Amino acid sequence: MKTHVRALVVGGGAVGCSIAYHLARAGWDTMLLERDELTSGSTWHAAGLLPLFNMSYATTHIHKYSVDFYKTLEAETGLNPGFAVVGNLRMAQTQERMDEYMLYSSVAETAGVHHEFLTPKEIRERWPLVRTDDLKGALFHPQDGYINPADVTQAMAKGARQHGCAIERKWQVDSYEWTGSEWRVTARKMVEKGGNLVPGDEKVVITAEHVVTATGNHAQRTARLLGIRIPAIPVEHQYIVTEPDPALVEWRKAGNPEHPVLRDADARWYVREERGGWILGPYERGAPARFLYDVPESFRADLFPLDLERIEEEYMSMIHRIPSSENVGLKDDFNGPICYTPDGNPLVGPAPGLRNMWLAEGFSFGITAAGGTGYYLAQMMTEGEAEIDMASLDPKRYGSWMTTEYAARKNEECYAHVFILHHPDEEREACRPLRTAPNYDRQKALGAQFGQVNGWERPNYYGPKDAPEDYDHHARSFRRAKWWPFAVEEARAIRETAGLIDATAFTKHVVRGPGATAFLDRFTCNALPRVGRINLTYALTEAGTTRTEYTIVRWGENDYYLVSAGAWTAYDADYLRKRAEDFMAGGGDYVEIHDVTTQYGVFAIAGPNSRAILGEIVKDADPATVLSNKRFPWLTARRIELGMCPVNAIRVAYTGELGWELHHPIEMSRYLWDLLLPAGERHGMKLVGARAQNWLRQEKSYRAFGTELGRDATPLEAGLDRFVDLRKDFIGKQAMLDTGIRAKCVTVLIDGPDDADPWGKEAILHDGEMVGRLTSGGWSVAFGKQIGMGYVRPDLAEVGQKLKVRMLRQEWDAEVVEDSPYDPKNERIRADG
Length: 833
Ligand SMILES: Cc1cc2nc3c(=O)[nH]c(=O)nc-3n(C[C@H](O)[C@H](O)[C@H](O)COP(=O)(O)OP(=O)(O)OC[C@H]3O[C@@H](n4cnc5c(N)ncnc54)[C@H](O)[C@@H]3O)c2cc1C
Description:
eight-stranded mixed β-sheet, 25% helix, 19 helices
């Protein structure tokens, strides 16, 4: 056995084999270790469906790659992976479900996934065994279907071997040690003992420059060995196989093709043909999480007992949809562990806090995702970045606040939500409230409807004060939802009077020490602010794309306060710390980094009356001038006192109005709230949530992290040239310049439909051809039109360019407008008083 490799992959399921294949194909010396047999984890009992349907841009790319890749495997390896390209019919019982498919259609179009819409009549004509009288229609993917999970895994393993990868079975990795330059991985030979598979005495130590873990249901053990948290915990998933259905047998005997995989999303199941019978896979409520701490040694390629009662409702609805299945008996059943994560996305990317350690854990659609995961993860490892932004899958999207109990309960919810309506304004209920800012109860009493960001409760909008608990649940829509008029009023208040936003969830870091200035100067692409001033700046990846957006406040020569997006605390902390370590290892002076996110509460006050409101409560020798342009100009920071609360005030407003961010000791948050509200009331101030804020920032063309800003575009492509100082050297500079402009970020105003706004998933067209996509969307109160931001072909990014945006499967006129179409000269933000 090899004892030194460039990359060691741990786990021989579909995911591990795909990663090994793609790393080996990229020319890396790779080895894969599997504790048992290949496919002996969840892979062996998967139903093998390859659904392309997904609302996420990144995941859609991953799934699409898999489906295309699996079709090439036989030619390359000689092994037939058993891909039955029967298509996939996703039925809709309601108009809302059809709306969901129309939104999905946008995602699919931007990712190049072919799909069709079928009417009930068309379904009935093609598949008469399916009952259609209560359907509104269906979405049809003719190019997907199902595959044999074991065969596709073996084919990828063979392909990996052909590219030089070594695959060793019956070796379990038992420890990982980072030497400072490589991993020392100890593996034990597994032996049979009393029917169990247990570690024997034989041991091997392998050194590897990089390690990837793809350990499926064993993720908790992997987490323990690595000393990190991995919120991948399996949930039970069952499917049943029926005896042959005589009507189906006859239909096929007549020479008809196999049915596509059928999905009755409103009834929460999939069904496909299996030897003349049917496989029914329900995503029922109440499926329990399993193996919260570990997989017992006695559990090998085992299954849990069938719980038929739990899936009775779905079973009955299959009979409703396929009436001929009523009298066929059950032949077989499977109830196996299927790994989940709290948001349903797998965890793919660098492990938190560790070097050269990559995770590929928590796959619930692992057969579908394996191919694409291998491809994009190998790109990240061998080339530095993947061609798509993988941030939504990054393992560091959960911080140290995440616990086993949280992961287990959220994963159960995620499983039960597989077939819910995937509203873009959805907020899931489990494990809430958990992380609450001090004014949570006060805000709730005032009608706040909360969303969860990185575990924090953050008001999305303020609805009726006496709203029932489930108000928001019923307020969602693919079109304009019930919350829309509240957000309009909130946006209007910021433009006309004033609004108060609780922005406590912001990520905040203190960076200081003798090396702080030199470090940050290289870490970020904009010139550092002078003492007392602030700057907007970006940390880039080595590939020159945007890793993080920061507002940097410089309090002293070597004393900085960095504010970044609330959803990404651990993700930002990890990069900051690792780059600071590199800086010091390279001879740089000492730099201290502190995550102070939970030490400071933040209120953002904005609007023409915001100065007057603060003026009522500010304490200063000369309160009349303390907030004036002379003493407190735009883009500066000052320590002020509001009543008895010391506040680090920053004169910026993400909404583009005169305003301040008030960073204050979190324990004084309630005091400050109680001070601000009565003062605000006298000046028409409204409480404002994240939805209105998201619209307003688009009127100012303020890019947001995770939408316009990500690891697939450089700041120059994002149109942020004025925040890039080319006179200095910074991480990713040359790569950014070498990349050129592949697409350009623009703001568009859209003459859209009367009852819907874009969500930031829609295709942008020109002369009937797709030329870009929206990354954000909403309603502009200032312009009385739909607004969006997105990326288009550079030659179509000029102001005044006429384009179309496809929403609800229709094309709507759109026009590229100047950056910051609302108050382009920033006169309102700079207003004096
Ligand atoms: C009933 C059921 C039906 C499903 N149907 C579908 C479907 O239709 N479509 C779909 O896409 N997905 C489906 N899934 C999900 C799918 O099975 C999984 O997402 C997928 O198999 C995950 O693959 P993996 O490689 O991540 O994990 P696994 O297949 O579990 O592989 C992990 C491997 O790592 C090994 N390992 C763990 N720890 C170590 C160690 N320390 N050292 C060495 N080796 C180690 C294990 O032995 C195991 O072989 C289904 C799941 C279930 C339960």
